[in-house]
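REQUEST FORM: STRUCTURE PREDICTION
Request ID: SP-0412
Submitted by: Lab K.M.
Chain count: 1
Length (residues): 196
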Amino acid sequence: MTDRKTIAAYNTRVKDYVRLTRRSRPDPTLIRFIERVCPGGFVLDLGCGPASASAVMRDHGLRVDPVDASPEMVHLANSTHDIGARLANFHDIDAADTYDGVWANFSLLHALPEDFPKHLNALHRAIASGGVFHIGMKLGQGVKRDRLDRFYAYYTQDELSAHLTEAGFFIDDFSLGEGPGLAGEIEPWITVTATA
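STATUS: Completed
RESULT:
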């Protein structure tokens, strides 16, 4: 993510985001992802926010590389979890055969549509063969900004599936739902688990 307005929105609403995403128990989707990654595996948390998911993964024995484009989120992640979060955007991912899994939970929805295939290709290169990829996106069509001025790109389930397949991923399963985001709007979403 390189959209300045989107990054600024996260920088100024860190506490609100933490309140929205706080859970008394780990996300069941995250636990299923952890169980699929090889024991002690290395996972990229792309768009880690406050690194709550990274902390759960670490507690389950995984090694984590949490990255986010928001300086305030990276600061909070490290001050809360001492987890080695670092500042990076989607264009900075240039590893090869490095990760056993990538957790991209509702982060790539901020990528420009023309850059989305390049990011998926880069993530496919970054994951070792047989590694696990999780992506969460909002369902829909086109692009827009929400009331917080964050940029969003929307895809249908078929479009997202085609992008993942073209990047070399094998889709294993998906989940559909809807819920409110930081802007308070209830929108449909999809999460997909795939193998590199």
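NOTES: The mean pLDDT is 93.
Reviewed by: T.R.
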